[in-house]
Write a structure and sequence with these properties.
Layout (H helix, E strand, L loop, with lengths): L9 E4 L5 H4 L13 E5 L5 E7 L9 E3 L8 E3 L8 E4 L8 E5 L5 E4 L9 E4 L5 E5 L10 H6 L6 E4 L4 E3 L3 E8 L4 E7 L12 E4 L2 E6 L3 E9 L9 E7 L9 E3 L3 E3 L3 E6 L6 E5 L6 E2 L5 E3 L1 E2 L4 E3 L2 E9 L9 E7 L8 E7 L4 E6 L6 E9 L11 E6 L3 E4 L8 E9 L8 E5 L10 E3 L12 E3 L23
Parallel strand pairs: 12-18, 20-28
Antiparallel strand pairs: 1-2, 2-3, 3-4, 4-5, 5-6, 6-7, 7-8, 9-10, 11-13, 13-16, 14-15, 14-17, 17-18, 19-21, 21-26, 22-25, 22-27, 23-24, 27-28, 29-30, 30-33, 31-32, 31-34, 34-35, 36-37
Amino acid sequence: MKKIFCLIIILSFIGCTGFNDAFRDSSGGAYKANGLIYLARACGGKIAARAIDMNGDGVAEGIDLNGDGITDMNYIYLIHGQLAGLDVNGDGVSDYYLNVELNDEIKIYTDQTGGNPITLTADATGKVTGFDLTGDCIANNTIITDIRNDSIAPTSAANSSGGAFNSVQSVTLTCTDNIACNGIAYTLNGSSPDFEGNGGVLVGASGTITINKSVALHWRARDSNGNLEATVHKISFQILGANVTLPPTYTPAIGYYSSAQNITLTNATVGATICYTTNLTTPSCNASGNCSVGTTYIAPISVPTVAIIQTMACKLGLSSSPVIKLAYAVDSTPPANAVSFAAAPGDGQISLSWVNPADSDLAGIRIVRKTGSYPANANDGTVVYTSLGTSYVDTTVANGTQYYYTAFAYDGATNYAAGVQATSTPSGGIVNAPLFSPIAGTYGNAQNISITSTSPGTTICYSTAGTPSCSAGPT
């Protein structure tokens, strides 16, 4: 995103009697949490805003311009006597530089030397629309409006997949958004995080969490318009200490598969012995660091049908690892087909409906769409639906185009049924009147009359004796 620099002058603070009422000292270096402030408005006047404490530490992390409790500009640093950074696009980088002065005035500059003052633009209701860069009362930088119109949720990721470790771990969470990330809420107790006080908040687009004990880390991102990430991510950490053998890691992941699997076990503790069982007994190690119950792992474990593998690792001089359980099931039989699959046309849409098969392991229906021919398999075309419902309205179609659908039932092992088919052509709500060539009139010889329509997919009905009807008569 292009970065636009600006200057905003805060005219006054409600209830302020001096510098220390509005700000913390240099060791805190931030706005007073939830303090009401006024910002200069383009071509005169002022706009009320509020300093917002996002993470509950009692210190504001940015400025809320529209009263939704979400910061529109985040502080990077705010220390008395130094120019500080302001981030307006959520990337964690300073776009502007802010100076806290002793006369209760805050100024924002384009660089650390100051200059180029700008003001906030607003509509007739006082809603902030952007920044006036040239003094002409027009929003030249409209990122605030872009944020307000944004309906796309952010995504996020961690730089670790979790697991067992001998030492403290640092986990970095990173948010990605089409406009601006606002923060990442997280918990370390397995509960669902939110931005209302349950757990912590990393302000901006990224942050690092220190994991010093065994925890379940859950997190979710939010953008500057309040759109929440659809997924709450979950990973677990075991911090075992320096004198403990790490448990084995495994591939593939536990779950259902459509063919036989070979399970590979590895261990990050150099020189460790891996023990496992497949008969529901618990493996164990003796004082010498060898398997006393179970088999010593030397080659991949074959799973042709179903297996519950229990495994651990041990090494002389270290405590044995925790035991982990792995469950695998091989299922190569697909579910039956869905039945009564139908596609009903509409204006700019096609309504799909079906009846699910009765298979107990049915995981869902995958509907694939093409033009020109029916999809031959579950990956042949555009996937329009993947879930366990019984109907769906496809609105990503164009009137007049014939679409071909195949519905594939699938199970937890991703076995797909052969598929059932339906086709339909959406059309507009109004059909234009037919066109005649030649036009109606009296002619001196016999004529061949052509009838056409400008409405795609239209059926033309006609009569040479009375009023035509599309329920009877020639077409």
